[in-house]
Amino acid sequence: MTIERHTDEELDELLGAPVVAREQVHGWPLSSVERVRLVDGRTLAYKAQLPPTVEPSFYEAATSPLLPGHQLLGRLGATETMALEWIDAPLLTGAADLAGHGRAVVAAIGEIRGDLPSYLNAGDTDAWAELAAETTDRWERIIEAGWFRSTGAEEVAKVRAWAESRPVLAAIEAGTRITHGDLKADQVFTTADGYQVIDWQRPVVAPPEVDLVSLLVGAGVDPRPVCEPAVVGIFWLLRLRWAVEAQDELFPGTRFPLFDGWAAEAAANI
After folding, report:
1. Shared domain check, 152 and 51
2. Are residues 79 and 174 in the same domain?
3. Could you please report the per-residue DSSP string of 101-146?
4. C-beta of residue 183 within 8 angstroms of C-beta of residue 211
5. What is the pLDDT of residues 171-221, one digit of tens each?
6. pTM, full prediction
7. pLDDT at 1
8. Is residue 1 one of the residues assigned to a domain?
9. Torsion on CA atoms 202, 158, 160, 119, rounded to nearest 10
10. pLDDT at position 124
């Protein structure tokens, strides 16, 4: 699949004002973000993304000051498109007391209201068991097919046993809710009115602290001194799930060392 984008003329009509400039500010095979300047003085982020994503429906369902204003622009083939308010504020990248900021953001995510869609569900022990089994089964098949070469049967067996262990099940039983699912410091803006968070493609129902682990790991900070070990492991199982899905479904037929590396990193940290 290829990302499709609206022409300037199409955006003129959809956004209600002519486009005077647009530039790509982010891109990878599944998504593209452009800064679009309009003749009426507005600046918007134009986002085009391929599956898997629930972001458009998440924005429509969610009520929270964490989310910027948005306008859904429809689908072009398999590509979902939307325009978001451009956030002109510092990012959390490099902030002092990242863990403190992270806890505040996690608390704010817990206050989002609405019938929120999720991409993955680990909301109770049955859902967790199903997710863990599917992930490790697919991982095993990918290893046997030769796509992943940095892990083997020993790592798969270790992760399966860990997923069924009492501390992990207790972490799930302690409480779950919607989480961002891939929170990073460069997705969190610090505005005069508080935080704003972007990139809600794949929210996960999981223990809330998973987002704090994600934020710290993304910044190269060891989360174990401030997060429960079982929740740290749950984060890495979710990262493993994304690695096997990306190799197995999104880019089948081509071996990607990046995804192999993610799986190995996850296994080493569980």
Report:
1. no
2. no
3. HHHHHHHHHTT-BS----SEE--SHHHHHHHHHHHHHHHHHHHHTT
4. yes
5. 999 999 999 999 999 999 999 999 999 999 999 999 999 999 999 999 999
6. 0.96
7. 80
8. no
9. 0
10. 98
